[in-house]
Design goal:
The complex is a heterodimer of chains A (about 400) and B (about 150).
Chain A lengths: L7 H6 L7 E2 L2 E2 L1 E2 L10 H14 L9 H21 L7 E4 L2 H16 L5 E5 L8 H10 L2 E5 L9 H7 L4 E7 L11 H10 L3 E5 L11 H4 L3 E5 L10 E5 L1 H6 L10 E4 L4 E3 L13 H17 L1 H20 L4 E4 L8 E6 L4 H10 L2 E2 L1 E3 L4 H7 L4 E5 L6 H19 L1
Helix pairs in contact in A: 2-10, 3-10, 4-5, 11-14, 12-14
Chain B lengths: L1 H6 L2 H8 L12 E7 L4 E9 L5 E9 L2 H14 L4 H16 L27 H16 L4 E3 L2
Parallel strand pairs in B: 1-4
Antiparallel strand pairs in B: 1-2, 2-3
Helix pairs in contact in B: 2-3, 3-5, 4-5
Classes of the chains: A alpha/beta (about 400), B alpha+beta (about 150).
The complex binds pyridoxal-5'-phosphate.
Chain lengths: ~400, ~150
């Protein structure tokens, strides 16, 4: 890792998609929170894999299958290093954060939840970290409890403390809020949950691209993220789980690869991590994630985080000077996200005008309807930053906001 | 900016700021709720149909973008006093207008107010905003008290 500041111009040059015009304007991509763009090295890795090495994994003695398997499994090591997990058997390949959370809800949840037990989530979760728990609670008779946040977007830790009890089995919480940008105090929350005897699943979808994550230092029990938000392919992601927990959990989906021996009398399941990896996986997804991890690590997550924080500060300073602009989420510990509303102008209209200026933002509820409800709005505009964004992008955003106000008040 | 002004014409901005018939009808015998799950927009439509099947009163409430609010507002002005059958005819003609699939609406239809929404055709992502209220009227007329969504 280098300690020099991120060279954003060279980073930008690595992303072919950024070199285009939208409605005659240079593309300003401020929707990395929804999905990040892909550097050439990731596109190339996926393409090379299909051109040279593709076959099914773990299945055949021929050369291509050996190569595909080697490339696929090598990525487990990279993920292990990225998250500082203790061993590769704790790295489960899944299709994304959503699948990772559903896996835990359906296996650990089903085995450990019953009438009288409780699952804690927070008010700022993405729907992917709410609905799987609602389903698990409905099936088991357990109760879902919701930890609220303060109006500035900081979790109410007092409430969290009082809501934790002997009945709490699982705490499922986002590391960084996709709507508010809040970085939650994970270490403390995990310690408190463990004191109460609960396990903790951390939704890291928005954290892994923006900060260094160390699952052993956090001492979390499960950690989930998606490759596509980390400049990798869609349809691929990671579930980290502590080995002892994963060992004890029943499998989720059944099929090929997750078994040792199939007999109609009895089937024996495969060892970790394969026990949770039924069927032909997204091999190219893994290969692409490997390239993305190399790319991001080469630049340094610390450098990326510092750059994005500087952009966010710059954007927040400009936002505070715009009359009628309200920012949602002003936590002191915050990353890469600026959610806002313009007085009297619906988020969708803002999104359309900005798009016309070549600026891609998200307008809507960001799959976090409870957050919208907290603030009594139907939708917000969200600008989210990635490693390739620069100060010009932020300036373009605020020029676009000024034009939106102009147009909509005429 | 010129073509964006096609979408956000002054008339649309006016309807957005001062939506007509924006209230719950004093008395109504048909109603429906429409939501656009993509953006969380929602609209309630209230209709009073008389025995002859004529829409005597129509009003709406809810929250949405400028396009959906203006569309709902103009729709209520257009449909008041018309029959349920006419409402269907207007809806298909309006749908063609905002998707850019039709030519001009048939001469016997009064599109004097609706035409202003023709700019939506250039913004496929916004067609659902323009049609939400209309879909909801369909639900109110044909499957009373149903909740409908654009998805
Ligand atoms: C905080 C958070 N959790 C979960 C998800 C779901 O991720 P995916 O759709 O990749 O499964 C997202 C993506 O929007 C997210 O931001």
């Amino acid at each position: 890792m280098t300690s020099a500041a991120l060279d954003v111009d060279s980073v930008r040059a690595d992303f072919p998609i950024l070199k285009q015009q939208i409605h005659g304007r240079p593309l300003v991509y401020l929707d990395s929170g929804a999905s990040a763009q892909k550097p050439e090295v990731v596109i190339q890795a996926v393409s090379d894999y299909y051109r040279r090495d593709h076959s099914n994994v773990h299945r055949a003695v021929h050369t291509l299958s050996q190569r595909a398997t080697a490339a696929y499994e090598a990525v487990r090591e990279k993920v292990c290093t990225l998250l500082n997990a203790a061993r590769t058997s704790e790295i489960i390949y899944v299709s994304g954060t959503t699948a990772a959370i559903n896996l835990v809800a359906q296996t650990y949840g089903r085995a450990n939840l019953s009438v009288g037990s409780e699952v804690l989530v927070t008010e700022m979760e993405h729907h992917a970290n709410i609905v799987p728990w609602q389903i698990a609670c409905e099936l088991s008779g357990a109760t879902l409890k919701v930890v609220p946040f303060h109006d500035n977007g900081v979790l109410d830790l007092e409430q969290y403390r009082t809501m934790l009890s002997d009945d709490t089995r699982i705490v499922a919480v986002t590391h960084i809020s996709n709507t508010l940008g809040t970085i939650n105090p994970m270490t403390e929350m995990i310690r408190l949950a463990h004191d109460a005897g609960a396990v903790v699943l951390v939704d890291g979808a928005q954290a892994v691209p923006h900060m260094t994550v160390d699952v052993q230092a956090l001492d979390c029990d499960f950690y989930a993220f998606s490759a596509h938000k980390l400049y990798g392919p869609t349809g691929f992601g990671i579930l980290y789980g502590k080995e002892s927990l994963l060992e004890a959990m029943p499998p989720w989906q059944g099929g090929g690869d997750m078994i040792k021996q199939v007999r109609f009398a009895q089937t024996t399941y495969n060892d970790l991590p394969y026990k949770f990896e039924a069927g032909t996986p997204h091999i190219a997804g893994a290969v692409g994630l490997g390239a993305a991890i190399d790319y991001v690590s080469g630049h340094g997550l610390g450098q990326i985080a510092a750059h994005e924080r500087a952009l966010l500060n710059y954007a927040q300073a400009q936002a505070s000077a715009v009359s009628g602009l309200q920012v949602f989420g002003t936590a002191p510990d915050k990353a890469a996200v600026l959610s806002f509303e313009l007085d009297g102008i619906h988020a969708h209209d803002v999104g359309t005008v900005l798009d016309h200026e070549g600026i891609a933002v998200r307008a809507g509820h960001h799959c976090a309807m409870p957050v919208m409800e907290h603030f009594g709005v139907a939708a917000t505009v969200r600008a989210s930053f990635g490693m390739y964004n620069n100060y010009d992008d932020v300036d373009a955003l605020f020029a676009g906001i000024a034009r939106t106000k102009d147009l909509m008040s005429a | 900016m010129t073509d964006l002004r096609e979408l956000y014409q002054a008339v649309i901005l006016d309807h957005n700021r001062n939506p007509r018939n924006f209230r719950m009808a004093q008395c109504h015998n048909h109603k429906a709720q429409g939501v656009n799950p993509l953006c969380g927009d929602e609209v309630q439509i209230y209709l009073q149909l008389n025995e002859a099947g004529i829409i005597e009163d129509i009003s709406f409430q809810g929250r949405g973008c400028a396009i959906s609010t203006a569309s709902a507002s103009i729709m209520t002005e257009t449909l008041k006093g018309r029959s349920a059958d006419e409402a269907d005819t207007y809806f298909s003609a309006f749908h063609q207008l905002v998707t850019g699939e039709g030519g001009r609406a048939a001469a016997e239809l009064d599109f004097s107010k609706l035409d202003v929404l023709g700019g939506v055709a250039a913004y496929p992502a916004r067609v659902k905003c323009a049609t939400l209220a209309w879909h909801t009227v369909q639900a109110a007329l044909h499957q009373n008290n149903e909740k409908i969504t654009t998805e």
